[in-house]
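Technical note accompanying the year-one report. For the benefit of new consortium partners, we illustrate the data format agreed upon in the data management plan: each record pairs a sequence with a structure-token string. No post-processing was applied to the example shown here.
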Amino acid sequence: MAAVETAATPKFDRSAARKVARETRRNEAQAQKRLTSPVATVIAILIAFLWTIPTLGLLITSFRPGADSASTGWWTVFTNPDFTLGNYQEALTSGGTALTLGQSFLNSLAITIPVTVFVISIAALGAYAFAWMDFKGRGFLFVAIFALQIVPIQMALVPLLSLFSRGLEIAGVGIFPGLELREIDHSFATMWIAHVMFGLPLSIFLLHNFMAEIPSDVIEAARVDGAGHGQIFFRIILPLSMPILASFAIFEFVWVWNDLLVATIFAPTSSLPMTQTLNSLSGSWGDRWYLVSAGAFLVLVVPMIVFLALQRFFVRGLMAGATKG
């Protein structure tokens, strides 16, 4: 009987593994030491300090009485401290527009949350189509969407406003004969449409870059098992794309929440967001500008909470979506 030769199983060399681990840690420490220096650290701390000073001054001003803010600088609070919560109370209950800042807070939520949902939903479907569906003109359409990112928003404001006005006129004549344009309450619809249009190019581009990096073997295996595009999208693509979806949702939320330009052009009086009301808090002659400092911190509370709570998704998702063009 011929002897059957069996391959010897290689033994795990623990000493060699420990040696490799030590060398790896040593190389990482050396690389970190080369990339950092005391001078760069001092410069970074100095820049951060100088960058924070205006924000600190704004915060202190928001708690100072209006008479003190009008007569002395915010730094005098260190020698003559005098604080009040009246600025925040007055900012919430008053406003230069028909709405108070407190009422505009609900409008901002009614604008920002639906826009974020609409943009992410439409962009995810479009990004999947460009990444994993083969159709005629796909490359041209993707380049066109990418090119839309460099078109200034200001160029589209007047044509879009004219389009909305014409559409409302047609709706008024067809549905409510004799109804004038100014009587039509289009509420948040124009704001939703405008923000979705302006937010889709960048969102489709970033989501496409992330989805295109998903291994094709996973998609092909699902197709072999008989999965269609709908099943692949909802059962494979969406779960794997949660980091980029969450990160861009934060990005879109903060951008729409802090918007003033689109709100100035398209928002009706009954739907003004916080930024528009905040812009009018200082009064006609700017004599109540100290209220703007208090209102500014009321406006930034929500995006700050959202960003700080989900910033790990923001950083991880945007970095992952920007690694492939």
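Partners are asked to follow this layout when depositing records. Confidence is low (pLDDT under 50) at residues 1-10, 169-185, 321-325.
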